[in-house]
Design goal:
With 514 residues, the chain is of the alpha+beta class. It folds into three domains: 3-175, no CATH class; 203-301, no CATH class; 311-513, D-amino Acid Aminotransferase, Chain A, domain 1. Helices cover 35% and strands 23% of the residues. It has 18 helices and 19 strands. It has helices at residues 3-6, 13-24, 26-35, 53-56, 93-102, 108-112, 128-133, 136-146, 161-170, 187-197, 211-224, 262-272, 285-295, 350-369, 406-416, 453-462, 482-485, 497-513, and strands at residues 41-46, 81-87, 115-119, 152-156, 204-208, 230-235, 244-248, 277-278, 297-301, 311-317, 323-334, 340-346, 374-383, 392-399, 419-421, 426-428, 434-444, 473-477, 487-494. Strands 10, 11, 12, 13, 14, 15, 16, 17, 18 and 19 form a ten-stranded antiparallel β-sheet that branches. It has a five-stranded antiparallel β-sheet with strand order 5-9-6-7-8, sandwiched between helices. It has a four-stranded parallel β-sheet with strand order 3-2-1-4, with helices on both faces. Helix 2 crosses helix 9 (161-170) and helix 10 packs across helix 14. The radius of gyration is 23 Å and the shape is globular. It starts with a helix and ends with a helix.
Length: 514
């Protein structure tokens, strides 16, 4: 009987029990390695975007998004640590050289000898983990690269049942959330955690199972808040704002509260669902409402206000259930309703960064009590008071996974060996110098197509914008998507956010000249 035939069926009780046993041993591994980082150990990096393939197919060059996890190569600074990095397609050797060259303290060849790169040779818009599970010989090569499974764990972008199955088949735990707990990061789960934490949030309704419940909830909310001009509808399990849709109530003035019956208002709301302004490109209203029926969601009052900001706080719960706030950011949002994540500034504005940090810590405490580990983000909305009083800070959602701010911050941390200071919400290098950055995954233009990574890096050095010994400069990611799709990402590190944004404009000027 083959090893594959001996594996428990995905989702079976046997698999769940084996996974629980593996996860129970993660804390001891964490403590052992933390006590002596010269111990032999293996980090298996699986940068799978384990989401709905239909959603993945909408993103140009989605397979290259796995490159965002290349900051994990900086783990090779630990002299006995091995990294097994698995991707959909083979990585360009130039891109690997580019990252290893940024690493300080360890000779490049020493690090390279402890790096094992494997791939599926499959760029289809499906989760990487699903591709790995379809390839028993690749699974065996990963096992051989791991060596002793008692001295290894998996690093993942997000945890789904696919990652649980892979962990069991490899015999190693995941340094991340148990897939059975990921509903805490859905829109409904987020609102319930926020309510328990006593955080302010937009008036809304959660736990809606289909469009019928959505219509009733919209009607009830409108009656409770008759001044509301817009509402937002959100799919439970969506990311980057692409599951959101705006409902404009102003065209329905003839059925507003006080002017029509509840039944008439609901009929009008039901008829208005095809007019939802969808954030996701290429999604039809019929498909969106079908998704709502399938996964459920929430609706909320759209909070108005001049000068609104959309910061986030990033939190890590380590395998010992210790909660640590690791960063705050001001998100740069776009799309039809300004809800699509485009980039971020670090750190968040000083007037509210410590407040959102404290609220995110409380969310982390509640999640840790429920057994959650790993990295996650909490998004907020900050609305300035029109009379100059205190800002209103509303919790928006929990992203129970790595996100668009994970790789920029870890790039900064690994490049500088610096630290995040929770007292000030700032980052300092080992020399005590403050560092900030502007980061994006959405640096793109049609005329970038055809630019080769080697030519971009060469021009970056010529212009003096590369990451330098003064611990400032530009670090690119998604380089593999540049020539074919005309898109890439970057993290621009400088002493202040303003200087980082100024250098970012120099980067766009550089690309436009090429």
């Amino acid at each position: 009987m083959s090893r594959r035939e001996l594996q428990p069926p995905p989702g079976s009780e046997t698999e769940l029990l084996r996974f629980a046993t593996l996860q129970a041993g993660l804390s001891a591994r964490f403590v052992r390695f933390r006590s002596d980082r010269r111990r032999p150990y293996t980090a298996v990096v699986i940068p799978s975007q384990s989401f709905d393939p239909e959603e993945l197919a909408k993103i140009d060059g989605i397979a290259h998004y796995e490159e965002r996890s290349l900051f994990n190569l900086m783990l090779l600074r630990h002299p006995r640590l091995k990294v097994v990095f698995v991707t959909s397609k083979r990585l360009n050797p130039l891109i690997i050289d580019y990252y290893l060259h940024q690493m300080r303290g360890v000779p490049g060849e020493h690090a390279r000898a402890r790096l094992c790169l494997l791939d599926c040779d499959d760029a289809s818009a499906r989760p990487l983990t699903a591709k790995i599970l379809e390839r028993p010989r690749l699974l065996q090569r990963i096992r051989e690269a791991i060596g002793d499974p008692a001295l290894a764990h998996m690093v993942v972008f997000n945890s789904s049942p696919l990652e649980r199955t892979l962990a069991v088949q490899l015999g190693i735990p995941i340094n991340g959330c148990d897939p059975q707990l990921t509903s805490y990061g859905h829109k409904t789960g987020s609102r319930r955690i926020f309510a328990e934490a006593g955080l302010d949030m937009a008036p809304g309704r959660e736990g809606l199972s289909d469009r019928g419940e959505l219509v009733r909830a919209l009607g009830d909310l409108w009656e409770e808040h008759p001044e509301t001009a817009r509402m937002v509808v959100k799919l439970n399990d969506s990311f980057s704002g692409e599951g959101n849709a705006i409902l404009d109530l102003r065209p329905l003035a003839d059925v507003r509260p006080g002017g029509a019956s509840s039944a008439a208002r609901r009929d009008a709301l039901r008829g208005a669902l095809p007019s939802l302004r969808l954030e996701a490109e290429g999604l039809t209203h019929a498909a969106y409402l079908d998704k709502f029926d399938a996964m459920g969601g929430i609706c909320e009052v759209w909070l108005e206000g001049q000068g609104k900001a959309s910061p986030s706080a990033q939190v890590r719960i380590n395998p010992e259930r210790q909660v640590q706030v690791v960063s705050t950011h001001d998100q740069v949002l776009g799309g039809p309703g300004g809800q699509i994540f485009l980039g971020a500034r670090f750190p968040a504005e000083s007037r509210y960064r410590l407040a959102i940090q404290g609220q995110a810590r409380e969310v982390g405490r509640l999640l840790a009590e429920r057994g959650v580990i790993g990295r996650f983000g909490v998004d907020f909305l900050v609305i300035p008071d029109a009379n100059g009083g205190a800002d209103r800070i509303c919790a928006v959602e929990i992203n129970l996974r790595q996100g668009g701010t994970t790789h920029p911050f870890n790039t900064l941390k690994f490049l500088t060996d610096g630290r995040y200071d929770e007292e000030t919400g700032e980052f300092f290098t080992t020399q005590g110098r403050a560092r900030a950055y502007f980061a994006t995954d959405n640096l793109r233009a049609a005329h970038y197509r055809g630019i080769l990574p080697i030519d971009l890096i060469d021009q970056l050095v010529v212009d003096g914008l590369h990451f330098r010994s003064d611990e400032t400069g530009v670090v690119f990611h998604l380089l593999g998507a540049l020539s074919e799709f005309g898109k890439l990402g970057c993290t621009v590190i400088a002493p202040t956010v303003g200087e980082a944004e100024s250098r970012y404009r120099e980067v766009t000027d550089l690309l436009d000249r090429m």
